[in-house]
Amino acid sequence: MNRKAKESETKILSPNSTLNTQNSPLPKGWVWVRLGETCSEPQYGWTTKAISNGNIHLLRTTDITSGSIDWDKVPFCEKEPLEKEKYILKEGDIVISRAGSVGYSCLITNPKNAVYGSYLIRFRPLVSLVNERYLALFLKSPFYWNSISERSIGITVPNVNASKLKEIPIPLPPLAEQQRIVSKIEELFTKLDAGVDALKKAKEQIKRYRQAVLKYAFEGKLTEEWREANRDKLEPASVLLERIKEERKKKLGKKYKELPTIDTSELPELPKGWMWVRVKDIGEVVTGTTPSKTKQEYYGKDYPFFKPTDLNAGYYVKKSENSLSKEGISKARLFPSKSILVTCIGATIGKTGFIRIPGASNQQINAIIPYDNILPEYIYFICISPQFQKSIVGNASATTLPILNKSSFEVLLLPLPPLPEQHRIVEEIERRLSIADATEKTIDQCLKQAERLRQSILKTAFEGKLVPQDPNDEPAEKLLERIKEERVKQNGKKAKLKYKMEVNI
User: Fold this and answer.
1) Hey, is 320 helix, strand or coil?
2) From residue 413, how far is each of 272, 285, 351 by CA, in Å?
3) Domain encompassing residue 249
4) How confident is the model over 325-336, as pLDDT tens digits?
5) Interatomic CA distance for residues 352 and 367, integer angstroms
């Protein structure tokens, strides 16, 4: 063996390199192996459709991407394999996704009566050589993911085959040290998981807090003391609404139509000075439209063209994925800044955005353009409140694709307080939600740090730096020799082990 080849046995794959073993020496007693040398021959999964009921579960890629398996959610085989034993999952098996979510893996524990689908490849670790939990943890490490990204092929759907997976290099310590590494990682991960769970619970509490703030705001509870202190200064909402009506009459003339009185007998009681109104009482409702996509001249960079996905920014919608030209906006419906855009069709029905610049939208969106003396920010917060969101869903058509048309949307009811109280409510909501947003941002940063720490633990472990070495452990090279002898006996011929890695594979 030449010097470079010998040196390569004591190097580990750099997390920033492809399949390069030029960095970080491995501890004494460790050797390089390939994934295929630690397992029996990999087996592709069974090709069949998934059904809701049956006798044998069918494990799919989507069932393992979280890292654990919820067997209650795993479907069944439409057609069971004739060679059931060939595909049946056993304790300690490892399955790896070869397409779609390429590289995701899962160690099978407490298996049900199950086989695995065609997008999965099963590896069955040779337990006399490698601890299956050691191998499963390696398949979560940055070293593995760097390798898998280089072996992934495909243009539309990334994929990898068993031959490429078998070639992935693995730093292999003595069997006893593998167990020590697994125990230490699991000890650290248990503590880390407890912290992550606490952070996720805190994030859920913030979500509930936001909903509670909005609920109380539109029940008048956030401004209860303020309203009492200013009761002699507030013009009732009924007077405000009459003024809006008069202005509308002057503007529309004979086109103006008086709306029927709202029956409030079964509606919740509102604070004194408030009143129930329809959406169209406080603003003009306009449904978006899409200029012809065959006319390239309609699309440019002059005006944002909002779609439901663009409303993810919520209170600060300032940009869109697509835009219209000046010619294109003449074929659309231009909404002024501070219009409230509400998705009224599909799975994201109720998604709301508050646009900060003039723009147009597609026909999935209804825009509310508030009248004078109605605070736009107040209407936005009303629209995202749990009460109003419930009314959107409740009044949508009960079909596979829920739809709330313009005529149904504009008669949805909302509580209207006096204008000064609208301002006060918005101030109180903004103050509380800004604190919630800052707290959530901190939690998200902590969750990212936790994931970085998880990867750092794995990196340290597979560099041989997480637990101390024991000179009394049988070297991994001795394990390999014994496995080679067993294979020679089984195959009746000399087995070739390729565990000695070249500098660049």
Assistant:
1) coil
2) 18, 14, 18
3) 235-417
4) 999 999 999 999
5) 10
